[in-house]
Amino acid sequence: MSVLHRIKSGTSVLLTLGTVAATAAPMLAPAPSFAQTAFSDVNNNYWAKDFIQDLSERGIIKGFPDGSFRPDAPVTRAEFAAMIRSVKKAKTRAAVGFADVPSNFWASGAIAEAYEMGWMSGYPGNVFRPAQQIPRVQVVVALNNGMGYEPTCNFQDVLSYYNDASEIQSYAVKSVAAATEKQLVVSYPNPKSLKPNKSATRAEVAAFIYQTLVSTNQARAINSPYIAKIDVSESVAVKIPSGATIPVEYAKGKILLGPNDKSPITLTVAADITGNNGQVLIPEGSKISGELRSTASGVQFVAQELSIINGSRVPLKATSQLITRKETVTKGVNVGNLVKNTALGAAAAAAIAGVTGDRAIATEEVLGGAGIGTLIGVFLGRDKVDLYAVNPDTDLDLQLDSELVVRTTTTGICSAR
């Protein structure tokens, strides 16, 4: 890797795959439905209870007038269209008129929307087969293709997870592999049994739809033993070359330092540091600890350690530019205004107190909480003092003094859990 890309903090890049709207659409549209979130036939120990309850609370699924959910009832293609239309996303194609879906059919609108949004398609001969019970594999393919997921691993390696992979029809293998990587597939009682050609039940469809929301961070992950899970990454060492720049930021708008200040300080990485392939090597928000050191020639930040958001910590050899800008503090200055939104080195705090006579500088303004009492005498009797003034927004970006090795993940390595 020879090039690093800096993404400015405050610039958001969103890859929007679909937005969920809590539009109420009954799972069986012809039957009256209630807004209940607990069902007489879904007890607390039922394997899909959490999936069903959450979707019910969102208004995506509903039960029956008798208070039941009928979790083991098979789902038709028309009924699935009525369910999936509640997961809203941008329309990607124009509606078509299927020969076996008359305009007055109860699910004609749902079928049209499911097609327009890319969730479902028809069969050769311009037919939809609305009354056909939908196989589990079709549900998986519909959800995966609607989201536009592609496999990152060798799809045959992924499908080896299933003990019945040979039953997956050829048209579906890549979609099933991608859906498995994204953890869209849920199988009770054995997650390694896909049962691709079995008719999907209402409970199974609820679980599949819920996992689709999880894949887009629009629902919390449920700790279920029935979710098919494949490891698709491994940790690898990546080298960031010497001379690379790390943008940083600091909570205060200014830092003042006196002569021979050595002040501990922690900076925050202001933007993702990425490699040539766009992979994030150092995430925005990671912390860099070190010292601000002042000498007769200026001030420089010397980094000591990088704490990456994922919890890893690595030694870091990096420095800022030499800062020579100074600010004069005079005897009559308003100390409150001077130190507002400003961090002070111990020598700078002592200098301000000695020149102005104000000994009430808050210790939280002093970097590291260092005591300043013994230093004040050096500055007593002076009418003014020159202090180094550091602007963290422009002065403290770091340059690596030596190669930095970080560990990151790479995709394409697949293994069954």
Tell me what you see in this structure.
The chain has 417 residues and is an alpha+beta fold. The protein has eleven helices and 17 strands. Residues 1-34 have low confidence and may be disordered.
Query: How many runs of DSSP E, i.e. beta strands?
Result: 17
Biggest sheet, open or closed, and with what strands and sense?
A: 5 strands, antiparallel
Q: What overall form do the CA principal axes indicate?
A: elongated
Number of helices: 11
What is the topology?
Blueprint: E1 5-6, H1 49-58, H2 77-84, H3 108-116, H4 136-147, H5 155-159, H6 173-181, H7 202-215, E2 230-240, E3 245-246, E4 248-249, E5 254-257, E6 262-269, E7 273-274, E8 280-282, E9 287-295, E10 298-307, E11 313-315, E12 318-319, E13 326-330, H8 335-339, E14 342-344, H9 346-356, H10 373-376, E15 384-390, H11 392-395, E16 398-400, E17 404-416
Parallel strand pairs: 5-14
Antiparallel strand pairs: 1-7, 2-17, 3-16, 4-6, 5-15, 6-9, 7-8, 9-10, 10-11, 12-16, 13-15
Helix pairs in contact: 1-7, 2-3, 4-6, 4-7
Provide the descriptors you would attach to this structure in a database record.
22% helix, 17 strands, disordered N terminus, single chain, 417 residues, 4-stranded mixed sheet, 5-stranded antiparallel sheet, elongated, alpha+beta
